[in-house]
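REVIEWER CHECKLIST
Item 1: Sequence provided? yes
Item 2: Single chain? yes
Item 3: Sequence as submitted:
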Amino acid sequence: MGTVVVLGVDPGLVCTGYGVVRATSGTFHAEGHGVVRPPVDAPLAERLLFLQRALLDLIRSISPDAVAIEEPFVGANSRSALTLGRAQAAALIAAAEAGVVVHAYTPAQVKDVVAGHGRSDKRQVAEMVRMQLGLPTIPTPADAADALAIALCHAALAGRPAFQAAAR
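Item 4: Structure as written out by the authors:
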């Protein structure tokens, strides 16, 4: 496998995190991270449009090989899952418009791949992101650290032979 650039997205209507990971021969490097914050007082449709446009601009500037996104965790709060699902849809549309393949991962999958256990807490995952990407400190804000974890998860899985065979 050559070099793969992955844009990780942690969707949210208040704050959507993004992180870019470059994987080369099993070595991972953070290329950047941050957040997109739609205007909190704007109507829902305008916030979603803001997210979609901002993510599309980001995708076009980065030209990633893949977009990795976290699946909303449904759990006990279905209203929260619906809100996250809307933000996820804006990211999916942005990636589709740019022609980039999207891979979705559950929170447990991300935690398992990045921290070695599907029930790791956010701090453990953030510390593993810091270590695996060779960063001096844990990335902030937390949404950006989560997005780097999602990108790292995909980059790690994409390098495995089983993943490559399934993608063919």
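Item 5: Key structural point noted by reviewer: The chain has one domain: 3-167.
Item 6: Recommendation: ____
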